[in-house]
Design goal:
The chain contains two helices and eight strands. With 102 residues, the protein is α/β, with parallel strands linked by helices. The strands form three sheets. A three-stranded parallel sheet has the order 1-2-5, covered by helices on one side. It has a three-stranded antiparallel sheet with strand order 6-7-8, with no helix packed on it. It has a two-stranded antiparallel ribbon with strand order 3-4. Strand 6 and strand 7 form a beta hairpin. Helix 1 packs parallel to helix 2. It is elongated. The chain starts with a strand and ends with a strand.
C-alpha cells in the first residue's frame, strides 16, 4: 500500500508529525516499532509538556496522542524498519519491515 507519509517511531515527535500530516489530508502511517510510545511509556510524571499545568502520566499522554492521531485517520502498525532505500525512480522510499516492504 502507498502512503503519502510514513513516520518511523511513535514517541511525541512521531505523534506530532502524524497529527499535522493527517490533518492536512495526507495518508499517514506510523510504524510504532517494538516499544509503541517510546520512553514516555516508562515515564511517571511529565511536567514539561505544554497544556498540562498539573502534569500528566507518560502512559496517559501516549494514549491520548494515539487517540488523537487516529481520530484524523492515521494508521498505526507495530512494525520496525530494518532498511530504508530510495525506489528506482528516486521519487519514493521503500521501507523494509519484518512483514515485508512498504
Amino acid at each position: 500500500m502507498m502512503y503519502d507519509v510514513v513516520i518511523i517511531g511513535s514517541g511525541p515527535a512521531g505523534y506530532t508529525a502524524a497529527l499535522y500530516t493527517s490533518r492536512a489530508f495526507l495518508k499517514t502511517l506510523i510504524l510504532s516499532g517494538r516499544e509503541p510510545g517510546g520512553q514516555l511509556t516508562t515515564t511517571t510524571e511529565v511536567d514539561n509538556f505544554p497544556g498540562f499545568p498539573k502534569g500528566i502520566l507518560g502512559p496517559q499522554l501516549v494514549t491520548d496522542m494515539k487517540t488523537q492521531v487516529e481520530r484524523f485517520g492515521t494508521e498505526i502498525q507495530p512494525l520496525s524498519v530494518s532498511k530504508a532505500a530510495k525506489s528506482p525512480d528516486g521519487k519514493t522510499f521503500i521501507l523494509t519491515t519484518e512483514n515485508g516492504d512498504i
